[in-house]
Amino acid sequence: MARQHKRVAMAALALCAAGLAQAELVTNGGFEAGDLSGWLKTGLYPHAADYAGTSAGQWAAHLTAYGEGSVEQTLTTVAGTLYELSFDWSIRTWQSQGAQFGQLDVEVDGLASLLDFTVSETQGTGGVVTVDQFSTHVVSFVADSAQTVLRFSVPGTGAQATAMLLDEVSVVALGAPTPDLPLPGTAWLVGAALLALGVTRRR
Ligand SMILES: [Ca+2]
User: Helix (H) and strand (E) counts for the chain?
Assistant: First the structure.
């Protein structure tokens, strides 16, 4: 019986450790595979590029306003769990263009639309984009199903215009909201594990 309690406690602690490790849900989020593996693309242009600048590593996703295009990925999620999405992006113009306006549409869809927003900026960098020209965006959402689709898209203008770079895409669980408990989920699991250990010792 004591051994069983100990097993329960160890399992609870292992769960805590797994939660604290913040497992990455996005495949090839930094595009270091050198291609768009793990992502589904629409439009002709989106591709992985190693010549245009990155916020980390050698590769970033290159999107453009030649025409509409998007990259998306379906993530395995747990309904009711809070997740954090972060990504880096930057405008990249052609050398002769000067400052250009660009926008990136970001969508996170479960059974319902969980996030739908646009980031935009005007920047005049041609050629290779440097790390400090990337901006980092961090948002959170609560999943409502076992699958969540993450999508980045650019509206096409039909002309040679602003391109943009996307890099370091990440989604990690921040833990499940537990409105019925006074403590956060992780703390509750630690408490349960310690309680089980205490019971074991008393016997
Ligand atoms: Ca990268």
Answer: 2, 10
